[in-house]
Amino acid sequence: MSDAVRERALAATRPGATPVSVEPLGRGNRKRTEVVRFAAEPPVVVQCSAAPGATKTEAALLAAIDAQTDVPVPRPLGDGVVDGTGWLVTPLIEGRDLHEAFVDLDPADRRGVARAFGRFLATLHEAFRFRGCGALTADESPADEATGTESTPGRGPSLSVVDPADAAEWVRRFGERHAARLPADFDDLRERIRDALRGPIGADGAPRLFPWDFRPGNALVADGAVTAVLDWEAPLAAPRGVSVAKAEHLVVDWYVPAGETGPLRRAFREGYESVAPLPAVERAHRAAAVASAVVDGGGAVTNPRYPPVDRDAAVEFHRAALRRALDGSDD
């Protein structure tokens, strides 16, 4: 992060405060993140991105979630653009990285975390509905509350869908894009995935917010409870079934052996149903969601568990998850 960007961001959000330390964090693949501490002011997190629109959208979404729900997120202190670089400043929220802590929690606390993620997701689905599926963007124009075509984050930009698509069309495109990115280790499953995506996909009302990276690795925990959910970049609107399938996979299946997922799965679904009825998760929804978790933005196979397993074990984990999704054995 350049000094100019950091200085402008801090001048807008901590005017007159003198930084005493700057600590880079390795969070996020498309932005730079730093923790800045001061002698007499609370510390902040400064993020910057070469895509100012993405930073603006994340700031608008965080502000909307903070204003409209009880999902714990860092409320933006300010955002802006310096020389083509977008910046966002939020308070530093204390807590242990849940990615590291999840397997150390006792079983009751792990179920509590899974239940909280389910409840948070349903709360987001109830709060944010859109006119079509696709990528979200921050729009300065007022939201059309009468038709419900946009979500309104109070004062400031509204959120709307760029090039909204029909739900079934979007699920197929989303799933096919991720199926095409799978490495050769998955060649024997690729056609089964595409077959699932060609099957019938029912309607599920208005598309809802799809936080596609909604997982313990982007959360903090203290005393067994989630204190913050982080990293809301590049949000999407999608059918609830895709969102439920993806979050359930990242919360329930990612950290514990398949034989131990039952209590966590029940807790996640109970948490969701404490707010809203659980949507139907169709074969195409689950196939697309699980396929989207196999490789990262750079094309490398993602590593489940903590500590993370090696590539061979990761490939076997993803193959087993895809087979379950295609067979419907997680329903």
From TrEMBL:
UniProt keyword list: Transferase
The Aminoglycoside phosphotransferase domain, residue ranges: 50-273
GO molecular function, one term: transferase activity
Region (Disordered): 1-20, 139-161
Stored Gene3D superfamilies: 3.90.1200.10
Record Pfam families: APH (PF01636)
Protein name (record): Phosphotransferase
